Amino acid sequence: MIDRRRFLQNAAIAAAATVSAPLSAARRSDDSGSGATYEPDTLPANPEDAARYRPPYKLGAGTTQLGNIFKITPDAQAEAMLEAQWQTGVRYFDTSPWYGLGLSERRLGHFLDDKNPDDYVLSTKVGRLLIPDASVDSVGNWKGDLNFDYRYDYTAAGVRRSVEDSLQRLGVPKIDIVYIHDLAPSNTDFDDWREQLQIAIDGAMPELTRMREEGMIKAWGMGVNDIEPAVAALDAADPDVILQATEYSLVKHEDALDRLFPRVREKNASVVIGAPYNAGFLAGVDRWHYGGEMPEGVMAKRDRLRAVAKAHDVDLRTAALQFTAAPDVVSATIPGARNAEQARENAASMRASIPAAFWDELKSEGLIAESAPTPS
Ligand SMILES: NC(=O)c1ccc[n+]([C@@H]2O[C@H](COP(=O)([O-])OP(=O)(O)OC[C@H]3O[C@@H](n4cnc5c(N)ncnc54)[C@H](OP(=O)(O)O)[C@@H]3O)[C@@H](O)[C@H]2O)c1
């Protein structure tokens, strides 16, 4: 990574570019045709002196699309999406054994194979071990051939094996952050999620702390779609980063603001925001999260948000993404992109400027919480 002096110089250049110049000022080179190339230090950065490990930059990439969530992402499109992420300066990638039952890790690892491991941050997850099984033809939202089934294991031995399996599948020499995946009340595989939580408190959590002390990983946390298990882990152990998905977005954030962020701040930890568009909803897709019904009122709320955005000439998806990165406790937001164009648009959104009057109006209309931090 870059030294401190260059980092500060680049941060100053990037800040100046954002305030006073069009996007092209932050470009470092042009690849003639398929989009400009940006250095990572043109993205919003985390403070270097944070008490606990944080990824250096506030934009990362989710990779459920590499696991064929909802529909098949062809190989060439997956590769082009990752190339575009890298080209636009994204250097943090989040995956999981669960995403396409190993496919997301395989595709991401193939892409990272020729990259210097010091140049990127990689997170994956533990809690499900993959079992070879050619007869499996449908699991969850994952499309296409799977070849694997899975079983849960939140024990110490289970999470260590899971990390080792992920390293083999990824084919890379390191994993930076490990999240305990989907140990949550909304996971319908569990009769009693609290039983699983206790197994993790006794097994996975102390083992991940040991792996951090051994230097095998830099940080660990929960990767969950509910707030309760994230708070439970902060109470029971010493996680560094909580990957909180679906609970902090432009349309849904009060609970995270009230119950999660203060606890995270107290523990000097940070939050990575998963599903910042509510699984595509705020990017314009008529889909809400990963199953179940569209909650009452969210379509009407999106319409009202769109109307305010239009009045201020603001792109709603851009506002939605920047909103998730604004709180001091947030160390990254990780939108998923289906293709190269979406990847480029997401990175451009983090470099765009939004007038303060837009955020003021969202507050005065009661569309976002009064206490919600907004981008400056
Ligand atoms: N429990 C957990 O740990 C957990 C849970 C959820 C998510 N996460 C993490 O969060 C990441 C992101 O979540 P996600 O991808 O499911 O949801 P998301 O980021 O909220 O939405 C991604 C979807 O939004 C649409 N989209 C993205 N960029 C767009 C653009 N520029 N223009 C138009 N549409 C755009 C695409 O929909 P289409 O594909 O329909 O085009 C894309 O698949 C995941 O990959 C994962 O890393 C973690």
UniProtKB/TrEMBL annotation:
Q: Name one Pfam family in it.
A: Aldo_ket_red
Map out region (Disordered) in residue numbers: 24-51
Entries under CDD domains matching the protein:
AKR_AKR15A
| Matching InterPro entries | AKR, NAD(P)_OxRdtase_dom_sf, NADP_OxRdtase_dom, TAT_signal
Task: Give me the segments passing through the membrane.
Answer: none
Q: SUPFAM superfamilies from the xrefs?
A: NAD(P)-linked oxidoreductase
Task: Please indicate which superkingdom the organism of origin belongs to.
Answer: Bacteria
- MF (Gene Ontology): oxidoreductase activity
User: What do the Gene Ontology cellular component annotations say?
Assistant: cytosol
Residues in domain NADP-dependent oxidoreductase?
58-363
Q: Which PANTHER family match?
A: GH17980P-RELATED
Tell me the protein's name. Answer: L-fucose dehydrogenase
